[in-house]
């Protein structure tokens, strides 16, 4: 007798185990919020790692942030905030059954996601070109065609737990043409006697020096010849790639979700004003957006 | 309509011929792609018991190797892999999904009088994630296994040549399976409770599952990111945990235990929920101190997030940090003891039936008390310095995990077995098996308390001559334990084919899952229920005609005839 119950005169979007569409919508919404909580906690591990290492090695983060392109980061922030607006509007359009508008808003959001990834690609390839990668592959080098002019640098930072001294560049001007702006910091030398900094030098330190003060036996004999960057600057790039990479994967997930929405739309699932799916994807997309805003602040704008 | 009243009247005879969830669809695909929570629960049950068998084999190999000092049956390297695989398989494949995903999945919607969990597709996804995670773990075992211990501590786990990546990816995927189950349970309990079931009229098993789900949802993502970082460390060398690249290996311990300490409460809280159900039914008495038991589950869940540092008392934490974590660790004893005293008070002056599930309740009370109290030894800073990384820790852990969780799981399995499969198992063999498991377990692990307090370090391949007798007693205990489990497997499988058909309510329980037939129909219930007090055992009477219990007034809890529409 119950088998027939499922087919007679029900809303096709109402699953058999719910009593009302309201109950179904509230269940989906609670589930989505819980899922987003797990997402925040998932990123939370990386934010904790960031906090721990920034607390231990603040100079590394100040140093590393010079290599990130604030202009491109800002552009991506604008792109994502705009996409949050379009997807929020999409929810409204779905509620009002404006199917055509809904379609274009989803497409606009998806285009923003692609634009974000495109800009990210430009940034990543510049890092790749300069060998500014995660610790295990960190091998910084500068192309000869590029010219860098260091305007001014001198600063001393006493790293916690060690009494070595490093110098830091306050301002770097980049005069290469047609290149992505890639400010290069670091012309640093340590002279334990006088902490004299040779401002004519502007090369990036060779990789794999090990923790400052723990230079291994394979380091050059003459200590004056070692251009030193803050100990373990590479850990900054590890964290940069882990955080932005994981975020990028979530952007890809967002694109997949938008495609799913477009497919639902094409099938006519939203014609009856059933907007749960649009609402869920929008919530997810807002979280992806918010995480990026934090990444932008914590990685690009910490100077 | 005749079929429906049959189950209402508790008519056992004929239920086997009815259309039930086991016969509702045929073929392997009707199982693998089912959205029915009962079938998913049964598939989980098969999956986790297979894992338990595999983990048990590893354990027996470890114990056999330790029969004599020096080499007995395997090399030291093989031994390192065996204890790692025992731990990893038992923890991640068996005990974490164990009660919630197998028993919880089956029972939770039935206890709510609902047709299914709120998100059935997510439920199936959870099961499939479990399968994929298990495949990764098996691949890891086949291509070289892991020898890091189940805790995967850096820097060893980033430098050993064994198959750490596939194992940790497997555990990462299993984590999502666990998150999905927990998320589903929270939503279901919030949104699908029937008319009349307020929060404090829920069966206590649901409070246990709800508290567990909170931890699953809030702690497991941290394990996910930790294992992802470990994989990235091995594959790319990101250096987060590598001091030569500026990282910190102790950060791994913090991350790992931020999940894995709450995870032991993922294991024990649903077990406590089962005990709360069983102790009332088999004492023939209303549960004592309902609200205290309910709140103590939530209290344990919240405190579980604040004690992870007690795993790092000897890892160079500051003294003040150690003191804070030690004090917080002690505080977990309060809600745990609240539960134990309430269970004892429930039994007091009850008419106790020593059926197999109740034997497991008594085992649980005895073993969990020992496991819990020895946890206080380890939470005390000075004592922990002496006992850290000895067999005392191993014994404590097994008294809580096996003596607590596994024993309660077995109690729950025997309690809901007639509901799941519609058959009664042999009570006599059930009691023999429960006794063997109790004796074998104590012989295996009580000896380890003694060895540990005398300084026998955990995870060692070799030992001094003085420990030989205790090690051999422990190994013999493990064989007795294994014998108990083989007997159990025998009579449970036998019951599936030859067991007496089970009545709807064989134990005299007042929760809603016993209102439907055994096994339940595919859509769970033919009526919509008005939930009352889940421990009102007085509303039932024994009916010799069906050899089961029936409501004195069957209409009293029916809200609407003919299903929930």
Distance between the termini of chain A: 70 Å
**CATH-defined superfamily of the domain at 20-132 and 236-300 in chain A:** Cytochrome c oxidase, subunit III, four-helix bundle
Order of helices and strands of chain A: HHHHHEEHH
- Integer average pLDDT of chain A: 75
- Overall structural class of chain B, as computed from helix and strand content, comes to mainly alpha
Uncertain spans of chain A: 1-8, 144-227
Helix content of chain A: 40-55%
- Share of helical residues of chain B: 55-70%
Give the overall form of chain B.
globular
Query: Unreliable segments of chain B (pLDDT under 50, ≥5 consecutive)?
Result: 1-15
Number of helices, where a helix is a run of at least 4 consecutive DSSP H or I residues of chain A: 7
CATH architectural label of the domain at 34-267 in chain B:
Up-down Bundle
Account of the protein in words:
- The complex is a heterodimer of chains A (303) and B (565).
- Helix content of chain A is 54%, strand content 7%.
- Chain A is mainly alpha-helical and 303 residues long.
- A two-stranded antiparallel ribbon of chain A has the order 1-2.
- In chain A, a hairpin with a 6-residue loop joins strand 1 and strand 2.
- In chain A, helix 2 runs parallel beside helix 7, helix 4 packs antiparallel against helix 7 and helix 6 runs antiparallel to helix 7.
- The longest helix of chain A is centred in the first third of the chain and has 36 residues, at 21-56.
- Chain A is elongated and about 70 Å long.
- The relative contact order of chain A is 0.17.
- Chain B is mainly α and 565 residues long.
- Among the domains of chain B are: 1-21 and 508-565, no CATH class; 34-267, Up-down Bundle (Cytochrome C Oxidase, Chain A), CATH 1.20.210.10.
- Chain B contains 16 helices and 6 strands.
- In chain B, the strands form 3 sheets. Chain B has a two-stranded antiparallel sheet. A two-stranded antiparallel ribbon of chain B has the order 3-6. In chain B, strands 4-5 form a two-stranded antiparallel sheet.
- Chain B is globular and about 70 Å long.
- Chain B starts with a helix and ends with a strand.
- Chains A and B meet through helix 2 and helix 6 of A and helix 7 and helix 8 of B.
């Amino acid at each position: 007798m119950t088998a027939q119950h499922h087919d007679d005169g029900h809303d096709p979007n109402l699953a058999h185990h719910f009593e009302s569409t309201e109950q179904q919508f509230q269940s989906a919404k609670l589930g989505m919020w819980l899922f987003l909580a797990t997402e925040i906690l998932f990123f939370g591990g990386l934010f904790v790692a960031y906090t721990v290492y920034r607390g231990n090695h603040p100079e590394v983060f100040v140093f590393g942030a010079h290599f990130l392109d604030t202009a491109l980061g800002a552009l991506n922030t604008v792109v994502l905030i705009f996409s949050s607006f379009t997807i929020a509007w999409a929810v409204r359009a779905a509620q009002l059954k404006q199917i055509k508008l809904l379609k274009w808003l989803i497409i606009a959001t998806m285009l923003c996601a692609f634009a974000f990834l495109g800009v990210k690609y430009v940034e990543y390839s510049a890092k790749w070109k300069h060998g500014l990668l995660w610790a295990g592959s960190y091998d910084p080098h500068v192309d000869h065609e590029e010219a860098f002019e260091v305007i001014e640098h001198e600063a001393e930072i006493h790293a916690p737990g060690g009494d070595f001294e490093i110098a830091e560049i306050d301002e770097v001007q980049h005069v290469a043409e047609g290149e992505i702006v890639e400010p290069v910091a670091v012309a640093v030398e340590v002279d334990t006697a006088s902490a004299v900094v040779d401002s004519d030098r502007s090369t990036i330190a060779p990789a794999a020096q090990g923790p400052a003060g723990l230079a291994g036996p394979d380091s050059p004999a003459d200590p004056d010849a070692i251009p030193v960057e803050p100990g373990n600057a590479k850990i900054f790039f590890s964290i940069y790639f882990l955080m932005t990479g994981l975020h990028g994967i979530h952007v890809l997930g967002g694109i997949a979700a938008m495609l799913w929405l477009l497919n639902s739309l094409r099938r006519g699932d939203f014609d009856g004003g059933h907007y749960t799916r649009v609402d869920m994807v929008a919530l997810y997309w807002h979280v992806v957006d918010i995480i990026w805003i934090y990444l932008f602040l914590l990685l690009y704008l910490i100077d | 309509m005749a079929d429906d009243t049959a189950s209402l009247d508790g008519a056992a005879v004929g239920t086997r011929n009815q259309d039930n969830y086991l016969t509702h669809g045929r073929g392997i695909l009707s199982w693998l792609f089912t959205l029915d929570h009962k079938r998913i629960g049964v598939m989980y049950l098969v999956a986790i018991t297979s894992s338990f068998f595999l983990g048990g084999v590893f354990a027996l190999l470890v114990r056999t190797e330790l029969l004599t000092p020096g080499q007995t049956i395997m090399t030291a390297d093989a031994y390192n892999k065996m204890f790692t695989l025992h731990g990893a398989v038992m923890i991640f494949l068996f005990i974490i999904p164990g009660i919630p995903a197998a028993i919880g999945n089956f029972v939770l919607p039935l206890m709510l009088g609902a047709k299914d969990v709120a998100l059935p597709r997510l439920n199936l996804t959870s099961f499939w994630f479990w399968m994929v995670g298990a495949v990764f773990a098996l691949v890891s075992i086949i291509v070289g296994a892991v020898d890091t211990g189940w805790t995967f501590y850096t820097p060893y786990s980033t430098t050993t040549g064994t198959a750490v990546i596939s194992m940790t990816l497997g555990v990462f995927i299993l984590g999502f399976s666990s998150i999905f189950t927990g998320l589903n349970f929270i939503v279901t309990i919030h949104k699908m409770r029937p008319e009349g079931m307020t929060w404090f009229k829920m069966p206590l098993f649901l409070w246990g599952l709800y508290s567990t789900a909170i931890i699953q949802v809030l702690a497991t993502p941290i394990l996910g990111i930790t294992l992802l970082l470990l994989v990235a460390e091995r594959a790319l060398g990101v250096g987060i945990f590598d001091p030569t690249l500026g990282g910190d290996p102790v950060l791994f311990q913090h991350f790992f235990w931020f999940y894995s300490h709450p995870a032991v409460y993922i294991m024990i809280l649903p077990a406590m929920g089962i005990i709360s159900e069983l102790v009332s039914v088999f004492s023939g008495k209303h549960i004592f101190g309902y609200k205290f038991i309910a709140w103590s589950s939530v209290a344990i869940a919240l405190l579980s997030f604040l004690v992870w540092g007690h795993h790092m008392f000897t890892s160079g934490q500051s003294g003040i940090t150690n003191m804070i974590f030690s004090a917080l660790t002690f505080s977990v004893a309060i809600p745990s003891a609240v539960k134990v005293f309430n269970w004892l008070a429930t039994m007091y002056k009850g008419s106790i039936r020593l059926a197999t599930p109740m034997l497991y309740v008594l085992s649980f009370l005895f073993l969990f008390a020992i496991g819990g109290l020895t946890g206080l030894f380890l939470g005390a800073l000075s004592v922990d310095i002496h006992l850290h990384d000895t067999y005392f820790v191993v014994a404590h852990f097994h008294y809580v995990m096996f003596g607590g969780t596994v024993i309660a799981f077995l109690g729950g399995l025997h309690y809901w077995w007639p509901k799941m499969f519609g058959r009664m198992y042999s009570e006599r063999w059930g009691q023999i098996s429960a006794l063997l498991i109790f004796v074998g377990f104590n012989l295996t692990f009580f000896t380890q308390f003694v060895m540990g307090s005398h300084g026998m370090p955990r995870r060692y391949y070799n030992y001094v001559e003085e420990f030989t007798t205790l090690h051999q007693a422990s190994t013999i205990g493990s064989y007795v334990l294994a014998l108990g489990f083989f007997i159990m497997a025998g009579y449970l499988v036998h019951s599936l084919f030859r067991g007496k058909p089970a009545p709807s309510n064989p134990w005299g329980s007042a929760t809603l899952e016993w209102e439907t037939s055994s096994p339940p129909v595919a859509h769970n219930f033919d009526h919509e229920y008005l939930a009352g007090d889940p421990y009102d055992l007085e509303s039932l009477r024994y009916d010799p005609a069906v050899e089961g219990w029936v409501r004195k007034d069957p209409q009293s809890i029916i809200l609407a005839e003919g299903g929930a529409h």
